[in-house]
Structures are given as C-alpha cells and as structure tokens.
Amino acid sequence: MRVTNSSYYRNFTNSINDVHGRLNKSMNKVSSGKAYEKASDNPLAYYEGKKIDNQYQDTLSKLGLITNVKNRLYQQELGARSIQNRLSEAKKKIEYVRSDSNNSDMQIVQTVRDDLLQKQQSMVNDLNAQYQNNYIFGGSDTTTPPFTLSADGRELTFDHTFAGDGYVTTMKMTLEESGGTYQYSFSGFTDDPRRPMDADETLDNIVKAMRETGYMDVGYGNISEPDTLLDTNTGGLNLITGLSAGAMNAMSDSQAKDEVIKSLNNSPVALVGKAVIASDNYIGGGSREDFSSALGTVMDTMTDTEHSVSTVYSDLGNKYSLLESTEEKLTTIKLALTEQYKEKLGADPYEAITEMFSYQQSYNAALRVGSNMMSSSLFDFVK
User: pTM for the full model?
Assistant: First the structure.
C-alpha cells in the first residue's frame, strides 16, 4: 500500500509540474507576443523570423543615424545662412562707407571698420559651431576647434587632425599686400614634432582637407559603391570657398591648388578682411581714392561670393530633403517588417489568451486535487 501511494504522489507531482510549465509558456507567449520561445520549437519559422529581425534592426540603426545626420545638417544650414547674411550686411556697410559724403568723417569710417571686423569674427565663430560637442565644419576631424582669426582680421588659421595622424596640422592664411591688392600667403606647421611647412606644402594639406568625404549608408545608394552613398561632410573651407569635396576630387592637384587660392581670396572671411585693411590704411593716412578703389574691388567680388555660399546652403538643404524622403521610406519598411515578423513568429493574441486561461484552470484544478490529497491523515489509511 505504501509503494502505491508513493507512486501516486510522484505521478501527481509530475503532472502538476507539466501543467505549470505549460501555463508559464502560455503566459510568456501572451506577454512577449511570440509564438515560439526557442529555435527548436519551429526551426524554419525561427530562422525566417531571425532574418526579418536582422533587417528590422538594420533599419532601426539607419533611422537613428538619419536623425543624427539631419540634426547636424540643420546646424550646418544655419551656419551657412548666417555667414551669407553677415556677408550681405557687410556689403551694405562697405557701400555706405564708400560714399564720399560718409567717408569724409573718420569717426564713421572707424565705426564701420570695427563693425566689419566684428562681422568677420562672427563668421569664424559660425565656422566653429558645434553639435553634440562635435565641430560641424571640421570635416572628418570633429574634435579639434578648426578656425581662429587674428585680432586684426588679417590671418585665418585652420587646425586639422588628419585621419591616421596623432597630431594637429596648422594651416595659416595671411592677407599680405601683393601688386597693390591684398592676397593670402600660405604657411603652417605640424605639431609632432613641430615642423614648419612652406606655402606649397600648406596648400597640399588644405586641398587634402577639402577633399575629405563622409559617405554614410543611410538607406540611400549602393553600399558596394561608396560614391553613390550620401556624403555628409561639409568642411568649413568647402563652405567659404563654394568648392565641394566632390568637385575637389575631380580636379588634378595643380588645378585644385589654383582653385583653392582663388576661392579663398574671394571667400567671405577674406573679402571682409580686405575691407578692414582698406579702412585701416585710410584711417592711417591713405588717400580717399585708394580707399574707394579697394572697397570697390571687394564689392565687385561679393556678389559672386554670395552666390557660392548660397550654392552650398542649397546643397545642404537638398541633402536634408533627401534624408527626409529616405527616412519616410525606411519607416514604411520598418512597419512592413513588423507585420512580416508577426506573421512568422507572432502569436495570435486571442488564441494565446484562451490557451493561457485553459492552462490556468487546469493548474488551479490540479492544486485543489493536491490540496485534498495532502489533507488525508494516517487515520484515513487505518480505516
């Protein structure tokens, strides 16, 4: 009799554990929405679901990347727009002070000169703008503050750490008189070890920096062909010259240098700097004719420069629009993948809940039976 009861209790325990396991599994199915807990439950469906999940995670990653790039592009648009506006304001100031009725008063000339220098410095501040502690116009180097302007506005310095280098390369552009006009001279140095660079090497490095690209796979283009992907880099030198990395890479080295020299000398920072120098010379005793001529030369170039900056601004806007359309496409793909996943691995909510309640009732009934069994005493068996 004792052996029979022991077997009875053991079988009952195994049965209630089995029911409890089924109940837990059904509860997990309801809470997770998944029809299978592990691959062995349905290997084929699980494998197909895993492929869908990988695609889903890749889509989520690209959507997150797009959000970050869009925000950075937006900040770059603001910077380009700000420089464009400051250049337009400087043009009006130059036109005002060039008038003989205004430049006869040196106090007016001094006030305009100081205002122009402030606008020039503000342009450089725009070029040092940050997003999430990254310098958005630093090209591939987002950690080094890229631009510095001397107190007199004559020297623009560009600091850059090239990929693979453990040191900063400093490139200086200094406005110096040349043939009656002011043009940039180029010099620089490297930090590790400190080594001076002549004009030719400095220009080589400027061209190298302006050729940097930042192609990203954000669901646009063919990943096996990097040139078809979106280039998210817009360096500060590219902005103020209007020369994109794509245009720079299409040129020969000698052609690129010539274009860089020309475009930098006609950049917003350089033009306003030339107007400041012309004002300094006039205040220092220069002739009104030379002052007016120098400002006239600056103004003649400003319209083309405004157009160059506007082109970069428009290009940034086009990239932003492209990212928005790509974002919409990826969002649609994400929703489609979600539905596919539900079809392959998702549990039917009604069936899952019905199954859970069924196992819950079975488990409760088993517990009641067990409770009655446990209430039996030795006297029951004596009877």
Answer: 0.77
